[in-house]
Amino acid sequence: MSELLVGPFNRVEGDLEIRLQTDAGRVKAAYVNSPLFRGFEMMLLGKDPRDALTLTPRICGICSISQSAAAARALAAAQGITPTPEGARTAAIIHAVENLSDHLTHFNLFFMCDFTRPVYASHAWHPRAVQRFTAMQGSAVRQAVEARAALMHILGLLAGKWPHTLAIQPGGVTKSPTQRDKLRIEVSLRAFRRYLEEVLFGAPVEAFAALATPADLARWTSGDAGLFLEIAADLGLASMGKGAGRYMSFGAYALPDGPAFAAGLWDGTLRPLDTTAIREDISHAWMLGGPAHPFAGTTDPDEDMRPAAYSWCKAPRLAGQTVETGALARQVIDGHPLARALATDGGVLARVTGRLLEIARIQLLLEDLTRALRPEERFMAQGKPAIDGQGEGLVEAARGALGHWIRIEKGRIAGYQIIAPTTWNFSPRDANGIPGPVEAALEGAEVRDGETEPVAVQHIVRSFDPCMVCTVH
Amino acid sequence: MTTNVLWLQSAGCGGCTMSLLCAEDPNVFDLLEGAGIRMLWHPALSRETGAEARAILDAILAGTERLDVLCVEGSITRGPKGTGRYHILSGTGAPMLDWVRRLAHVARHVVAVGSCAAFGGVTSAGGNPSDAVGLQYEGTHPGGALPASFRAASGLPVINVAGCPTHPDWVTETLLMLADDSLTAASLDGYNRPRFYADHLVHHACPKNEFYEYKASARALSEMGCMMENLGCVGTQAVGDCNIRPWNGDGSCTRGGYPCINCTAPEFEEPRHAFTETPKIAGIPVGLPSDMPKAWFMALASLSKAATPPRIASNATADRIRVPPTLRKPKA
Q1: How far is the C-alpha of A357 from the C-alpha of A355, rounded, in Å?
Q2: Is the pLDDT confidence value at B285 over 90?
C-alpha cells in the first residue's frame, strides 16, 4: 500500500486536493479535500436579506447565476411572492445560458485536455486530440471560447453582465426585454446552434438530443463529440469511475408550469424528492457542531483543523445516503432514454454524455423559451421584503442540485445555509465511514507504473465537473 | 521577447478568469499569444496538474524560469489564528499566503486581478471569517499580504486591476501594457488601479443619464429611472468604464436595470446599508457624485427635479418607455 497526494488538482473550478491509497496498480481508497474556506454563510448573518442577491453569486464565478437564482427563490419563498410568468421565463433563459456555457467550458477547456497527454501518444486518435484540445492552443479550445463569448451576449442584454448579475430578483428580472432584444437573443442562439452543428456535434442538434440507446451513441462519429466517443470506446471510459447509481435533481429552470427538467430521485426507480430528509454530516469536516438539516445548520469552522477531519466540505446525505448530482442525474430523472440506459454504469462516459445531451437539449429549450417570450408583459412582481420567515431555494446549477436555506428574523438574516452540487459529489466520509460519491467512484481506478497523478483519476474526477469554490463557499 | 505569466487563484470565486474568457476580437488566447504573453501556468487553463504544476512553481522560485508577471486572483486568507491555513495551495502543504509572498519577490510585476486580490473584496465581507486581505491593501488601508512598502522588481507596487469581476479588457490591456513596457507609476491611480479604466466613472455613458439630469428616479427595481436616489446606485462615484465599453456585448449593471455597487473600490462589499437601497438622512440621499460641491448639487437637484419634463417623469417609474420623445415640427 502506498500513498499519493494529487494537488494542485487543476482544471476544476477552485482548489482540490486528493489523497490516494494505492495497491497493486489500483486506488484502494480516496480522500477528497476542499482546501479553501471563506465562510459566506457566516458573512450573511445579520445582513438585510436582499444582500444575499449581491453576495451569494460571488461565491462562484462559474455558477454565479445559479447562486443568484437559488437566493432569489429562497427569498421569494420567505416573502411569499411568485415571479411573473415572463419574469420566470427570462430568469430561466439567463440561467440556462450560464449552464450551457459551463458545459461547453468543461468539455473543451477542463476535460478533453487530458487526452493530449503523452501517455496516450500511441493511440490513433492522439494527434487529433492534440490538434483540437491542447491547453490554450487547440483549435477546439479557441472555437469554444469564441462561441461562448458570443453566446454570453444574451447575458449582456438580459442580465447586464456575467458573472455576478443582480438581474434575477424574487419577483422576476430587473430588465424588461423589448421585441428588439428578443430578436437579438434569437440571433445569438442561431449563431450558437451553427457552432454546435458545425463543431461540437457535426450534425443537427436535434439528432444528438434524440440519441436513445448506447448503441446509437456508439455510432456517433461526427464533431468533437465523435472524437470523444472514439476515445471513450478505446479507453473503456464507460466502466471507468462508476457511480452508485443514485441520482438527485432539484428540477431545472422554474417555469410557470413547473421545471423544464424534472425534480426527483432515481435509484433504478423514479422517486419524489424530499428535501426534509437532507442532513449535513460534519464528522470528517473541519467544522464544529453536529449533523443538521440546513434550516437548522450552522457553519462554525474548526480553527484547530482536527486531524480526524480532512476537508472544509461538509457531507450532505439524503435519508442517510450519498447521491450523485449533475447533468447526467438531471437527464436520468427527466427520463431521457439514453441517460436512463447509461445510469446503471454511470461512469466517465455516462457523465460526459449527460453533459453533451444537455447541451443539445438546453439549446432547444432556449430557442423555445425565447420564442415564447412576450415583451409586452410584466417581468417583475413587486413585493415587500420578509420581516420574519424562512425559505428554501432549489435550483439546478450546471454541476447539479444547488440549495439555499434562509431564515429571517426581524428583517435580518438569522440563518443561511447553502449546499452546492459539488458539496454532494465531493463530500468527505460521513460518521458511518461512507465515502462521498467521487471518493467511491475513484476506488479501483487504475494507477500505472510511476504515475504521480494517475490519468484515470484525472478523467474520473473531472467527469464530475467539480466546482470547489461552490463546495465550501 | 515573451512575457511569462504565472496565474494563481487564491481565496476568490474564479470569476475574473471566467470573465477573462469572455474577451472578444480576438479571443483571449489569440490576444495573449499575439502579444507574446505566455502562461507558465494557470490553474483553470493549463494541462499541468499535481507534481507537474509544483515543478513549475519550484523552477520559478529557483530562478530557472523567468517570472515577468505574477497574477493573483482572489484575496489572501490569514486565518485561522494567523496561520493562513484556511487556504492551503493543494498538494503543497503550504498556505497560499506563503506562496504569494515568496513568488512576489521573484516577479518583475505583481498584478492583483479583481477586488478580492486588490483589497480583500467580498471574501472579507461581514465579519471576514477567513481574515482575508488584498495583496497590498486591507480595504482602504495600505499593507495586506505584502507590506505597503513592497515594490516588485520593476519598481512598481502591486497593480490593482480591481473589479468584481474584472472586465476582460481591463486584464488583457494591463497585460498588454506590461508586455509593451508602457505601464508606469503614472499609469496608476491613488489605489494603484490602471487609469485607462479608473479615470472614468460608471456614470459616463450610463443610459439612464437623462433621468439622472432631472433626478427622475426609479422607486423599485425594474423601473427605468435613475437608481441613485432610491436604489443604492453609486455609478456617479464608482470608477470604471463599464458604460463606455460595455460587458458581454452591450451590457453593464445599470443597463441591466440594477445599481452600480462600486465594485472597483476597496470596501465595496460593506456599504453599511442594503446594496439596493440608498441611505437617506431626512429624506435626502447620502453620498454625492464625485467632485460635486454639496450645495450646488442640492440646488441643481431641486431645480432639475422641478423642471422634469412629463415624458421623463412618466418613463422613470415605468418598466419600459411609455412616452417617446416629442417630434420637432419641421421649420416652415
Answers
A1: 5
A2: no
Query: To the nearest whole percent, how much of chain A has pLDDT over 70?
Result: 100
- A2-to-A16, A34, A209, B50, B296 alpha-carbon distances in Å: 20, 22, 44, 17, 75
* Separation between Cα atoms, residue A36 and residue B85, nearest integer Å: 8
Q: Which residues of B touch A114 (CB under 8 A)?
A: 47
A163:B13 CB<8 A:
yes
Assess A342–B contact: CB distance below 8 Å, yes or no: no
- Tell me if the bond preceding A163 is cis, omega within 30° of 0: yes
The structure's pTM equals: 0.98
Over residues A74-88, mean pLDDT: 98
> For the structural domain made of B200-320, what CATH number should be given?
4.10.480.10
pLDDT reported for residue B331: 85
The set of residues, in sequence order, having a beta carbon less than 8 Å from that of A59 and lying 6+ positions away, is: A38, A40, A67, A418, A420, A469, A470, A473, B13
> What's the CA gap between A306 and B249, in Å, rounded?
48
Return the C-alpha torsion angle B50, B53, B58, B64, nearest 10: 150
**CB distance from A16 to chain B under 8 Å?**
yes
B308: left (phi over 0), alpha (psi -120 to 50) or beta: beta
What are residue A305's phi and psi, to 5 degrees? 45, 65
Nearest to B183 by CA among B201, B198, B200, B195: B195
What is residue A473's predicted lDDT score, i.e. its pLDDT?
Answer: 86
Q: Name residues whose C-beta falls within 8 Å of residue A253's C-beta, 6 or more positions apart in sequence.
A: A92, A95, A96, A259, A260, A261, A365, A396
Four-way CATH pick for B3-196: 2.40.128.110, 1.25.40.10, 3.30.70.20, 3.40.50.700: 3.40.50.700
C-alpha grid cell, residue B209? 443619464
| Contact assessment for residue A405 and residue A416, using Cβ atoms and an 8 Å cutoff | yes
User: For residue B210, what pLDDT is reported?
Assistant: 97
Give the cell for residue B135. 495583496
Q: How far apart are CA A465 and CA A355, in angstroms?
A: 10
Q: Which residue has the cell 467511491?
A: A440
Q: Which CATH class for the A2-472 domain?
A: mainly alpha
User: pLDDT of B213-231, one tens digit each?
Assistant: 999 999 999 999 999 999 9
Residue A345 predicted with pLDDT over 80: yes
**Nearest-angstrom CA–CA distance, A437 and A246:** 10
Looking at the predicted structure, is the pLDDT value of residue B332 above 80?
no
- Inter-chain Cβ pairs, chain A and chain B, closer than 8 A: 275
Domain borders along chain A are 2-472
Alpha-carbon distance values, A56 to A23, A164, B41, B159 (Å): 42, 9, 29, 27
Interface touch B87/A305, C-beta < 8 Å: no
Whether the predicted interface score ipTM is above 0.95: yes
Domain spans, chain B:
3-196, 200-320
Q: Which three cell numbers stand for residue B136?
A: 497590498
Contact call for residues A3 and A19 (beta carbons, < 8 A): yes
- A455 inside 8 A of chain B by CB: no
pLDDT digits (tens, 9 = 90+) for B252-275: 999 999 999 999 999 999 999 999
